[in-house]
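Exercise 7b. Backbone tokens:
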């Protein structure tokens, strides 16, 4: 990854920050996107630039605004001269049970998890074709195993897996497109899942434990830097939950 440039959405904290650290440690320069987490983004930028000067830049944008997509790519290329990989990590996650689904809920969950990755990939395609680059989408095991009461989120992530396959065909042979589907890695910051719920979910994994954000980051790094003959694939990083009964 030495000298390569990676644009990572939602990179300021949680799994996004782990992906940033992993890619940066491998030698990449980063354009770190955030929406509202300005404080976390600046702290991470300072941390990484302290290791390698001028290697991380920040960009703020609301991914629900499609007009910002070309600018994200343009500013990355202007800052670093190229774009080698796009990691679509930014996501909204909350319940949307039948009876409570509104147009606003649909627009937000579909917008962040499905529409933004597609339009950002479209904007990035010319630069990625020039660099023979890669796209990695962060999906979810609930793309294949819908989570009860999370109808719209599950639909959005299922669509993201489909987009991964479609883009792999559309952008070949210059650009590889793959996805990572995490299982129980980090819980929401709120009290959505109590301890009983968490233990029940963990018990459904084959490895009987949670994963870590770096488990996801390692898979992303593999797909960007090492999996040069893989495209259209989704790697499950879920402790085997996707095959557990």
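Sequence design result:
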């Amino acid at each position: 990854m030495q000298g390569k440039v990676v644009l990572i959405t939602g990179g300021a904290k949680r799994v996004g920050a782990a992906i940033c650290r992993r890619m940066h440690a491998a030698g990449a320069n980063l354009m770190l996107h955030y929406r509202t987490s300005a404080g976390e983004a600046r702290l991470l930028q300072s941390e990484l630039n302290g290791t390698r000067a001028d290697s991380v830049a920040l960009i703020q944008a609301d991914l629900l605004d499609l007009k910002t997509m070309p600018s994200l790519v343009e500013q990355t290329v202007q800052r670093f001269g190229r774009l080698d990989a796009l990691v679509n990590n930014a996501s909204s996650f909350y319940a949307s049970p039948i009876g409570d689904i509104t147009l606003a809920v649909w627009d937000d969950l579909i917008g962040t998890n499905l529409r933004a990755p597609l339009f950002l990939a479209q904007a990035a395609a010319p630069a990625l074709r020039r660099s023979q680059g890669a796209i990695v989408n962060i999906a979810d095991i609930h793309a294949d195993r819908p989570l009860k009461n999370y109808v719209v989120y599950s639909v959005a992530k299922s669509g993201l897996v489909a987009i991964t396959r479609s883009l792999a065909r559309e952008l070949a042979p210059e650009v590889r497109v793959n996805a990572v589907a995490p299982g129980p890695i980090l819980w929401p910051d709120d009290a959505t899942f109590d301890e009983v719920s968490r233990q029940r979910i963990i018990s459904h994994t084959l490895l009987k434990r949670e994963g870590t954000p770096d488990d996801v980051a390692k898979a992303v790094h593999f797909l960007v830097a090492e999996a040069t003959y893989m495209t259209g694939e989704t790697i499950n990083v879920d402790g085997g939950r996707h095959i557990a009964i």
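Instructor comment: Helices lie at 14-25, 38-51, 69-80, 103-131, 151-171, 195-203, 213-226. The longest helix spans residues 103-131.
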